[in-house]
Amino acid sequence: MYQLPYSNSIRPIVESYIQTNDLDLGNFQAEFEKVSASNGKLLLIVLVILQGLFLKVIFWKTKKLFLVDFLAASAYFYGFYILFVLVLFPAIVIFFSKIFDFSMSSLFNELTISIVFLLIIVFYMFFLIRKAFNIDNLGAIWRSVLLGLFIIPSFIIYRYILFWVTFWMIT
Known about the structure:
Layout: H1 7-20, H2 25-42, H3 44-58, H4 67-99, H5 110-133, H6 137-170
Helix pairs in contact: 2-6, 3-4, 3-6, 4-5, 5-6
């Protein structure tokens, strides 16, 4: 309901629903987050489809490739993303903070983590695009940068869809 581009459009809907049904915001939020957590995993396919469609757009001149090729590349990317960014990276940070006995929280804030993840995404996408679609380095560089930047709006779209699916399920 806060700090997202669509927050102003959904906040009145949620507030109206809570008021109309005489609900407590805390209870509604707890139920919403519980259902949203399980829906979030199911709706990851939305991210794969969005990125696959975007890949198709940036390869619009390539007629020998089909949408399924781009969806497969997108699925490989999100497999990497889940494994590395959500599992291995936090484990590496925890491991090194234990070995060197210092808090890494001073090194990582939202901005630095976003920059690190964006660089990792662009780096991985460069190699994925170059190998999967057999293109030169320059073509892979600009496409991987575009895809890295597309992650931001795709996550916003994903979270918007996730909000509505969850809201409809609990209301």
